[in-house]
Amino acid sequence: MSVADEPWRPATPAAARELPQSGAQLWLCPLDDDCSEAGAALLDAGERRRAAGFRTPLLRARFIAAHAALRSLVGAALDRPPADLRLVAATGGKPELAPGQGELHFNLSHSGGWALIGLSTRWALGVDVELVRPDPPLQVSSMAFSAREKAVLEALPASRKGSFFYAAWTRKEALAKATGQGMATNFRALDVADGWAEGGGEVRAAALDGPPSLWRFHPLPPLDGAAVALALPALEGVVECLLLRPA
């Protein structure tokens, strides 16, 4: 049975203390169960300033909930109080722990009422979640897809174009975050079409700077109304897919 055949397993943040030493945990976090901003106490001053800049209370509350969930999980994995963690932006804007805070790789993505958080003690990783629109912005493919990806998209029936578009886009975003290059990535140089229908596959990212050049996309449990992706180095390891529940 593959990961994609299994549901997201409900767990509290304490499960992050049992993070696999050779693999990763992927946490799906609902953001709208409680938008009371109670998590604001876990954030640092910079995160609270960013939250205050959102134009609606809902967007502000979702940002707070996503970043509070990240701190809760990272804190549990390191056995440290979440509010005491110091996070900094690395090259490309990817958040990481400040020196002396501990050794842990993590990544966060949020869209609508969902956040996706990846944790690994050993490997750099990237995650992405995107709400699926009934009218996907297929025009983005002209700027961000490889020639082969555009050919695949063109050949698919209309009923499957959206599925491929979101699978490819979330993979590209996850890989760009895993490498730390972010939006500086040459997305058209990446071809992530292999295995897209099954949710798996590998990509040799020769156009990206630095090792490793071979990355794997792991099959993940489906999420109704959204697309999700996880990029890890192409090495064997366990990936646990968990649904965050309050402690």
Automatic annotation (TrEMBL):
The keyword Transferase applies. Keywords: Transferase. InterPro entries: 4-PPantetheinyl_Trfase_dom (IPR008278), 4-PPantetheinyl_Trfase_dom_sf (IPR037143), P-Pant_transferase_sf (IPR050559). Residues 125-229 form the 4'-phosphopantetheinyl transferase domain. GO terms for molecular function: transferase activity. Coiled coil: none annotated. Belongs to the P-Pant transferase superfamily. Gsp/Sfp/HetI/AcpT family. PANTHER family: L-AMINOADIPATE-SEMIALDEHYDE DEHYDROGENASE-PHOSPHOPANTETHEINYL TRANSFERASE (PTHR12215:SF10), PHOSPHOPANTETHEINE TRANSFERASE (PTHR12215). This is 4'-phosphopantetheinyl transferase family protein. It comes from Teichococcus globiformis.
